[in-house]
Prior knowledge:
By secondary structure, the protein is mostly helical. It is built from 24 helices and no strands.
Amino acid sequence: MTIVFLAFSVCGCILPGTEQFYRKRLRCAADLLNRHMSIGFTIPFVMVCRSQVADSRTIGLIIVCFILTSIITTISAYTLALPIQYLMVRWDRSFCGCSPLDMTVTQGVRPSVPQTTAKSIPEVKIMASVESMSNYGSESEESTDDEGPNPPQMKKVPSAAATSLPSYDWARRNPMLVICWLFTITIGLPLRYAAGNNAVFATGLLFALWLTMLAIQVDIKSSQQLRPWLRTLLAGIFNPVLWTSLGMMAYIFIDGAVSRRSLSGMLDTLQRDTTFSTFILRLVKHASSAVTTTGASSASPSIGAGDIAVSILNAGLVSWGLKLYEYRGHLVSRGGLTVFVVSLLLALGNMVLGPLFVHAIGLRPAGRELAFAARTVTIALGSPVMAVLGGDAGLNAAMVVLNGILFQMGLGFGVGRWLEKKLPWLPTATTTPTNDVEAQKVVKSTNQCTTKSDETNDPYTVAAGVTIGINSAAMGTAYLYETKSDAAPYSALSMMALGIMTVGIAAIKPLTVWLVERVAN
Length: 521
């Protein structure tokens, strides 16, 4: 991701057409990949079944420690990012030459939404969600003709889309979903029981479940029959990552019972720890060796459904370099500096204070305690940290995925907007018309000074992005990109910065040795 971002940034400085090339050729593909990259999070969640089941007391302690550390980290991220960014914005305004009077005019209102009339800057939507989506094949039933009945020759004839069955219309709007289910039933299922090929059936089932849950969530969000609160509730409940993971767990247990295979063996067929690029290289090598040798050849390389899903996730993470390039104006700003400062503080705090905190509560053994050192770090960067510290990698991956699911569901439920309304120190944006000419002049002067900087430095937007990126890693960031939130680039940058800084801190050998010795006592 970092390399892609730097490469496009350098090319943008050298080649004037880089921005146009990205928007015409790569932007749609990056958005599509970002839409489906979360399918990769279902596999670590399913692999939790491989971990040994602990006793009830240990499970209770893990849950308590997880809840407490999540609350502390969330509050710490927001309370650190908000005042730091406020100081950055005030310093930026002072440097810009705004008078103290200008500062008091917008006090109590988000800087990006000044108190102006109709020409004010639009309100920044931090926690925006997709409330309405396009409905294909629907026509308005309301008549706008007030001049009497229509003549016979002008009578409206219902279109084929309007008279089609709802099931056909739904299938027409989700062709890939129908193809995946047909592939799973007609090709994957026979191969599974005739040739013993689990990979084809599991891959088709995984993508069919994923696309089904996405389609259900989209239909719920676009439904006009449901009340807004019920629509938000159901859209949050039908989380695609959660239900796809549960569906694949059900497949693992059912198929294992039918074929009389162990749980470990079923999980091995789901994920073989082979990346897609490695699979292609092995396939080419196997084909070349089969041509050059006439004797018995080795078994052909194989790849599991989980490997394909994780490859999509990794590709999505790399493609975020394109999104960072798209929002580079947000990053090369005071907001970007705030992200790095907060990420450094929380990376150090999580690495040292996290294991010590759960150790004081009574969680044992040391491997489970050290899993909290990278509890909010994305799995790709958390795995090497667990290898250095000797932490429980399975528990760490489970907490990262569960934290992401909870944040994604919370955003879908509208928790951010609810907090904005309930907390008195989070002022909502309002427009206050005024007839005072002098006040309007002051506001206009303030707007000219702050418009460009505040669009990319709004403290509430930066704080929200940092909080979501640090606590929910890639899942929350993916949700922000899906909903076109202004906080998305800050979330992606904070996720990347937290992971890199955590890996860097873990490389400090005296610190890690001291930490392991403390939790081992």
